[in-house]
């Protein structure tokens, strides 16, 4: 039988060259291993004695023309070579052979990391795709996918027709954003236009990448402005720690470790630094936080102010943004003077306002100023003492107000006047004593009263 088959193959080559009118339907076919096969062989020649099919696994025997059919219920040959032969009445014989491709999809396809474990950012990593028991391998294409993106395609040149195992490798330059992505490979059999309408393919289960990488904080703002009474804390920032293994996070304020869940107050404005760390390294990120708050007053209710002092030193509100301060007196808004005057004493209402609220404060101001002589300077002519007697009148000078500021200058001025006055009187009465009588001396500040007394006498 094998000899007959080989002889038929040689006759096929000859018949093709000779151009004998054979028709094979179909002349080319792709069939899956184990599926049924049916091919018709026909001829238009009239001098045919008989025809038939020869195959290592069974033929049809010698049949009358013009058509003979080769049929197999279950094709289990990897390289089938049936041929149709025609014997003419003169004994000459011709053959024709169909082109048959038998294929088999893989039993399974898988992806592995070859036991190397997780990927590490910045290092190269290899994945392996195993395609088990596929034929024919020369028609095999392996495609690699990262998620749904094709990243590599590989074909094979092996001409083996029987099933074999094939493998493909994918080298990855690992990036941190590959963590959690899926890699998969797909085995496709490209069988030409005579093949199945849809490519026979088998896809591996997904391989989920685990990438180890240094930690960092993402979505962290450079500056944040918050309000004191909004119960804001550091852990409410949009900062999200990222890293694998999962990092630890610590927050520092002025180089001191803090509790990030504590609500911030007006004294907590400043620069905050987060330190994230895992086994691969650490990084830090800074955020400047401004805590704004509504106005308030910490002033006293009563102030004594020396005349010509600046108003701004009296009572200033606190608040952020800096409040606008308005002064009211007797229900009317007043323009703040550059310096206080003695007639500015009284009750004031202070109103402070910013974007977060308003505060008021009642203030009593007492403007202090040095004593003044309301009358102009006077000169009095004083009569001598006469034989009848003398009269004396005392004047008391009262100093009120802030004695620490006006008492000592007034005393020194008074002493200077007394000394000058006594000196002048002594000279005067000394000169008068040369003429007659006896005299008594009193301070010049009492002269006007003495003169008045003498007049009354």
DSSP summary, beta strand count:
30
Structural class estimated from helices and strands: mainly beta
Proportion of residues in β-strands: 35-45%
Choose one word for the global shape.
Answer: rod-shaped
Low confidence ranges:
1-18, 444-457
Tally of DSSP helical segments? 3
Distance between the termini: 182 Å
Quick one: CATH superfamily of the largest domain?
A: Immunoglobulins
Architecture overview:
This protein has 457 residues and is mainly beta. The protein folds into five domains: 2-103, Sandwich (Immunoglobulin-like), CATH 2.60.40.10; 108-209, Sandwich (Immunoglobulin-like), CATH 2.60.40; 218-291, Sandwich (Immunoglobulin-like), CATH 2.60.40; 297-368, Immunoglobulin-like (Sandwich), CATH 2.60.40; 377-457, no CATH class. It is 13% helix and 41% strand. It has three helices and 30 strands. It has helices spanning 2-18, 403-433, 447-456, and strands at residues 22-25, 28-32, 37-43, 48-54, 67-72, 83-88, 93-96, 99-103, 108-112, 119-120, 124-134, 140-146, 149-155, 164-173, 182-189, 201-203, 207-208, 211-218, 223-227, 240-244, 248-253, 256-257, 270-278, 281-296, 302-306, 318-320, 324-329, 332-334, 346-354, 357-368. The longest helix is centred in the C-terminal third of the chain and has 31 residues, at 403-433. Residues 1-18 and 444-457 have low confidence and may be disordered.
